[in-house]
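Lecture notes, continued. The same structure-token format from the folding unit now serves as the input rather than the output. Read the line below as a description of shape only.
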């Protein structure tokens, strides 16, 4: 697919107890029309911060997010450019309960994204019934309160709410990880079905690498706030080029050990560089560290890795890697 949503050099820094946390640093990528773009990386690597910038819940400190909308009518009604953009990109969060107001009837919550549009009351009610049906909830759900539903059903409600306004892109931030294992597969099946039915593009964040592999067309790997690798799902899982990707995949349970990339010989030092936080130094004035954030954990690190930051480059068509000494690239 063509680039639909272009993320250009976005960064987001938080201040916490006088320290700067570089949650996302200079991330560039394009989300392509109709794809599932998986996003992986350890806890604190900036996945949710990136997700919130994609849906404009957080503003980048710098960089740009551009939705290309062929056929998009100029002007339009209410909400301004930012309002329209927001409706074009919707998000489903990990904890469905947190995104639903317990005092509002389900129909009211699901209808909410339509409020800023020019959809009439009757058409809105019809669309709400339609999406509730689509996510597999009973006819009378709209009149009930969120508490009457199970966790899996609540997540179906959150999905209905995300798709009701016909978005182009849906950002799914660990959409099944809070659900019972028995329910996870059902919700994933539903998400795939909806993607086809509504012609959606997904950004799918998950710690479950097996699921990411199964549903993603391409996968982005984040480490310490940066994009370290981006490739087709098949090539990423078969031949990871960044040493962090290799470490991440080596921890992945596989039914066939031959599918697993070799474990790096040197084990990472626990707790090191788990986020941009560890890199940010002593205070507000701390500059970004020199070199690669993964260098201290990397089995292939050489001197230049500690002094020169590797920028993401397209090593081969469709594969972007930010590493001075990528794995398995000899002779390609
Ligand atoms: P997880 O896999 O645990 O969900 P993540 O990859 O989604 O992690 P983020 O939530 O984006 O990571 O966090 C990135 C970094 O930014 C972390 O160090 C986190 O503590 C910090 N951070 C995130 N949100 C805030 C905030 N509102 N205020 C201060 N620091 C924040
Ligand atoms: Mg997160």
């Amino acid at each position: 697919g063509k680039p639909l949503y272009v993320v250009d050099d976005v960064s987001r820094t938080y201040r916490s107890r006088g320290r700067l946390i570089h949650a996302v640093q200079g991330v560039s990528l394009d989300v392509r029309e109709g794809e599932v773009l998986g996003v992986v990386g350890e806890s604190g690597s900036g996945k949710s911060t990136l997700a919130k910038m994609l849906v404009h819940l957080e503003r980048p400190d710098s960089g740009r997010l551009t939705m290309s909308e062929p056929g998009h009518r100029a002007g339009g009604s209410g909400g301004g450019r930012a309002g329209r953009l927001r409706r074009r990109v919707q998000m489903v969060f990990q904890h469905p309960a947190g995104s639903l107001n317990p005092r509002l009837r389900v129909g009211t919550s699901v209808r909410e994204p339509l409020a800023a549009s020019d959809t009439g009351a009757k058409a809105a009610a019809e669309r709400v019934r339609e999406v509730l049906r689509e996510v597999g909830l009973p006819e009378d759900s709209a009149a009930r309160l969120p508490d009457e539903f199970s966790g899996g059903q609540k997540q179906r409600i959150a999905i209905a709410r995300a798709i009701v306004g016909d978005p182009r892109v849906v950002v799914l931030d660990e959409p099944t990880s809070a659900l019972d294992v028995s329910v996870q597969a059902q919700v994933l099946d539903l998400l795939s079905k909806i993607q086809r039915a509504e012609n959606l593009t997904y950004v799918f964040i998950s710690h479950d690498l097996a699921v990411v592999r199964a549903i993603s067309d391409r996968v982005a790997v984040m480490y310490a706030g940066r994009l370290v690798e981006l490739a087709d799902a098949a090539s990423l899982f078969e031949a990871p080029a960044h040493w962090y990707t290799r470490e991440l995949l080596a921890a992945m349970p596989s039914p066939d050990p031959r599918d697993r990339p070799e474990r790096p010989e040197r084990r990472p030092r626990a707790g090191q560089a788990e986020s941009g936080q560890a890199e940010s130094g002593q205070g507000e004035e701390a500059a970004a560290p020199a070199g690669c954030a993964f260098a201290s954990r990397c089995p292939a690190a050489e001197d230049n890795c500690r002094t020169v930051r590797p920028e993401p480059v397209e090593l081969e068509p469709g594969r972007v890697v930010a590493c001075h000494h990528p794995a398995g690239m000899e002779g390609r």
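Point for the exam: The radius of gyration is 21 Å.
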